[in-house]
Write a structure and sequence with these properties.
191 residues, mainly alpha
Amino acid sequence: ENVVLPAPTATETPLPPESWGDPVLAQVLGMVFGLVLGLAALALVVVVVRQLLRFLVRLWRDRPLARRDAAAAGPGASPTSPDILPDEVTIRRGVSDALRTVSERPVPGDAIVAAWIGLEESAADAGQGRAPTETPAEFTARVIGGRHGIAADVAVLQRLYERVRFGGLIADEGDRRSAADALRGIKAGWR
């Protein structure tokens, strides 16, 4: 009834596990599998990059600004029709108000900026249309400077305005006088 199990001996060694085959063949198969896996990953990256580029090109082509500009301008459209002349009374009143503004405002820089903005409003009220590619200053210079002989005065006033408003110039009384002289020249051109 008592079963005695044989005790293991120190000379016995376990049997090695069964071999899967030749180690060189395993290495070759591993390299082929890795190469196939690498090519598949590369193909996936190429497809993703191609789709991303198509998406970005579509976004760029269909951006809202481009569609609005093309629709507003239309083929062969010009900013204004040569048959439509600006309202002279509106321009004269705007130039007179700008001259008064330059003279009455206490700070020269503020006076120059307020005078030019008044001219922008007068140009807009004069019945001219602003082209989609024109800035308000370009539009004002085109409408107000439309008379013969006053383009230089408009350019002087516009340069002063831009230097004060965007260039950091702290205008002095000399700048105020230059603006007033330019406005007087513009006013004389619109009589």
